[in-house]
Amino acid sequence: MRRLIVVPGLAALLALAVAGLLRSAGPAARTDPVAATAAELRCPACQGESVVDSPSPIAASMRQVIADHLAQGRSREEIRRWFVARYGDEVLAQPPARGPGLLLWVVPAIALLGAGAAAARTLRPRLAGSARRSGARTRWPRHPGSARRSGGRTRWPRHPGGARRADGATSRWSPGPVCSLTAAGLIALVAAVAVAADGLAPPAPPPADPAAVALRLAWDLEGRQQYEAAAQMYREALRERTDDGVQLRLAFALLRSSDAAGAERAAREVLDHAPESPDGLLVLGLAQRATRPADATATLRRFLAVAPSHPAAAEIRRLLDP
Amino acid sequence: MLGDLGSAGLAVGLLAAPLAALLWLRVALVGAPARPARLASTGALLAAAAACVTLEAALLGHDFSVRFVAENGGRHVPAYYTVTSLWSAMDGSLLLWLLVLGGYGALFARGRPDRLQAYAMVVISVVTTFFFALSTFAANPFRAVDPVPLDGPGPNPLLQEHAAMGVHPPLLYAGYLGMVVPFALALAAPLAGPAGRQWLRLARPWALLAWSTLTVGIVLGAWWSYAVLGWGGYWAWDPVENASLLPWLTATAFLHTSLGGGRGRERWNSVLACAGFLLVLLGTFLTRSGAVASVHAFTDSPLGPLLLGFVLLAALAATAITGHHRPATARATAPPLWSRPTAVLVNATLLGTVAAAVLIGTVLPLLAEPLTGSRVGVGPGYYQRTAVPLAVVVLLLAGLPPALRSRTRADALRRLALPGAAALATVAAVGLLSRPGPAALTAFGAAAFVLTGLFAAGARGGTRRWAATLGHAGLALLAVGVAASASYQRVDEGTLRVGETIRVGDVWARLESVQRAAPGGRMTVRARLTVSSAGSTHTAAPAMRYDPARDTAVAVPAIDTGPRRDVYLTLLAVAADGDSATVRLAVTPLVGLVWAGGAVGTAGGLLALAGAARAGRRRRPQPAGRRAPATTRMPA
């Protein structure tokens, strides 16, 4: 009786589920054609990110190009081809299924078939041919009792002190050669690592970014108190990329190399758009003590007002109120 | 001074590890006393610990004469991230690797090891020797620097943004290196004669420990990348992520094929146990050698050829030793088709196929370049077409255990009816109300199938069944979280002037201000936005940090986590005049289930571990005695 209710109920649910699945897979599922196209392309400037996910400027302009093409009525396939023609296959998020790209499908298929066949053989061992299996057992080391599973443990009594095992099988041969061979193998392993490590190329240098190199150099020069040279390197870095942090470091370096006017200029550049920058005010004030002592006190008081807990604040207070 | 001390520690380890290998070999061959061997293994552990402590001391003491400190330390780095910078780059993380490996060795050698354990210790000691040699000769972090710099750049800024830096890498290493014990036991089993029969029972607790720590490590890493990388996702099918997934897949398969004593599946168990650790080594090669480009490739080193050589050596040894080993106990009768052995093998087959797809997708860019001269990339689309559908089928299998326990076919069908109806109803309802796409929709259905089945089966049964229930429920929750966050995430991105808004669904965000600050040389730009969603309002402050020492910018997203959904704001760019900003607003439903599912699954693994350890202790004092057969009830 229950079956009369359950079976039609399940059938109705199945029909509804199929309808839901078909609707979900329908063509309207992809709402945004730009995103769908961008998802098939790889951002050339990123590592493993698709154009749709990447926040990089290149990906943003690629999305713009896709939107333009779509607006001109090109199909997604045409847009894909356009990108491949310009950037090669590597712009595709997934290599085409030819050449090495074929491996992407062949390897999992082989794994599925191989493991599936092995599983079938494990489940139905008789089908695999009993002739081969009968010979297999002889390959086991022939220890007494090895054929019986439950006997394994009882025949290997534990010797608390680690005394020589009462076992006929091992006393047949001496362990000497095995131990010597293993020792030789271990020495060879360590030696191979040592020799190979010696011959290895040093780590590849980071991609040459002039700004990063200049910054690093400036850092090192400052550490060796060569402030003029450091300032030169900071200027070099700033030519590649404007950045307030670097600008302020330049100002400090100039101050230390007794170029107060230069330090003042550098600090003002930061203060122009960030008037409350504590470091900017600090360098400016210190520089003004050399160039325009009249303004210096006011600037340093502003610095103290903006950043009363700055690490240099105590020093400045002492300077202002001796 | 500290540098010499650290080098000395490595040298001691390099002597102790091969000595341990030889001494354990003597224990295995002639039953020599285990005490000296255990002492040597402990010595290797202590050497690794001493090296780690020395490098930590150098980092905390800002001893820039030590190369690793000069490259990764910095006076401006907070103490917590100074401690964690030990594993922020290759050479230091190798020390942590050695410490964990030594810890596993010392733990495994406890008690009164029999011949099987002695052989396994030989394998572990050889692996330890290799990594000590690697650390000493190829990646010695203690080399001296001349001239000594006054300050260092600090670790990669991405690694200084989240407290998970302190736990994620150590947990991941615990997971990776835990695989060495099942691997060593699988290699030792054919050598140890009759004692080898016990290998699976010994290996299971270690596999459970490795699986649990690896699971929590992977999920923690996903959460970390969600909270730090600023793109609103947590899994990108990146090579480093794939490298951590590969051993997880084979370990999951192993935990299932080794159920019930693994009888009739001896070959599967030994292949899967070996595959787990070989994939760990391969993953180390892929991610540590700079061979594949990855957002996680924080380390770049010339170790590639050495690691690849060792992977090949280990694979060769595993094949040579276990290859000729044939199961001695052949199954007298084949199990019925509807039984746990079938389900377990189908599961292993599918997980193996997923692993094959992930593996070829990860290494193809590496293979294709020398083969064709052109660079190829394998994006998420490939995995969504191969790994994801297979994973949905695996998820369905996780709902079967209650039905597999039934004695008759009619009973099995009865037990499947309710979960099946729940799955179909879920697919129908979700599919007709929204369009999540076929993969997500079937994942929802499969998760409903699993959860209903587990719930209907109730909480009867011992520790092991509870553990399985938790593990499978965790997987289902994780699948719901992944499917929902992938298919219902909505994103918009735009350049706003102060006072303008961006909107996603019913979530609005208004730009209030843009602020700049440069404390300690790290320039920070912070945007303040008022976010209003479903009647509530809060302030979010996503930021961008520029680190001049490393010349990198890090986007620090602002995440408002809720039970139903996360509101995720990232600052992408700021105009020079400071009154407009480009922001990305993402609303992701149910992403919290990903972390919750990971936590529940890990709890299942730990519970199974507790059960296995207790069973092991109970069994240990019995000198002889038959073990209670732990087979499934099968339909007659």
Protein described:
The complex is a heterodimer of chains A (322) and B (636). Chain A is mainly alpha-helical and 322 residues long. Chain A has helices at 2-25, 33-39, 57-71, 76-87, 103-123, 130-136, 151-154, 168-171, 176-199, 210-223, 227-240, 244-256, 260-273, 278-291, 293-306, 313-320. In chain A, α15 (293-306) crosses α16 (313-320). The longest helix of chain A has 24 residues, at 2-25. In chain A, 29% of the residues are buried. Among the domains of chain B are: 1-160, no CATH class; 399-458, no CATH class; 490-589, Tick-borne Encephalitis virus Glycoprotein, domain 1 (Sandwich), CATH 2.60.98. Chain B has 20 helices and ten strands. In chain B, strands 2, 3, 4, 5, 6 and 7 form a six-stranded antiparallel β-sheet that branches. A four-stranded antiparallel β-sheet of chain B has the order 1-10-9-8, with helices on one face. In chain B, α9 (199-228) runs antiparallel to α10 (239-257) and α10 packs antiparallel against α13. Chain B starts with a helix and ends in a 17-residue tail after the last helix. At the A-B interface, α1, α5, α7, α9 and α10 of A face α1, α6, α12, α13 and α14 of B. Chain B: It is a multi-pass membrane protein. Chain B: InterPro entries: CcmF_C, Cyt_c_assembly, Cyt_c_biogenesis, Cyt_c_biogenesis_CcmF. Chain B: Residues 622-636 have a biased composition (Low complexity). Chain B: It is found in: Cell inner membrane.
Order of helices and strands of chain A: HHHHHHHHHHHHHHHH
CATH topology of the domain at 210-320 in chain A: Serine Threonine Protein Phosphatase 5, Tetratricopeptide repeat
The Cα radius of gyration of chain A reads: 38 Å
Q: Secondary-structure element order of chain B, as H and E?
A: HHHHHHHHHHHHHHHHHHHEEEEEEEEEEH
Question: What is the SS-derived class of chain B?
Answer: alpha+beta
Number of helical runs of chain A?
16
First-residue to last-residue Cα separation of chain B = 72 Å
Q: Note the main sheet of chain A.
A: none
Percentage of residues in strands of chain B: 5-15%
Biggest chain pair contact, residues each? Answer: A-B, 122 and 140 residues
Largest sheet of chain B: 6 strands, antiparallel
Work out the radius of gyration of chain B.
26 Å
- Please tally the β strands of chain B and state the result: 10
Weakly predicted, low-confidence segments of chain A:
127-172, 203-208
Number of helices of chain B: 20
Helix percentage of chain B: 55-70%
Class of secondary structure makeup of chain A = mainly alpha
Q: What is the average of the pLDDT values of chain B?
A: 87
**How many strand segments of chain A?**
0
Distance between the termini of chain A: 101 Å
Function (chain B): Required for the biogenesis of c-type cytochromes. Possible subunit of a heme lyase.
Region (Disordered) (chain B): 612-636
Biased composition (Low complexity) (chain B): 622-636
GO biological process, one term (chain B): cytochrome complex assembly
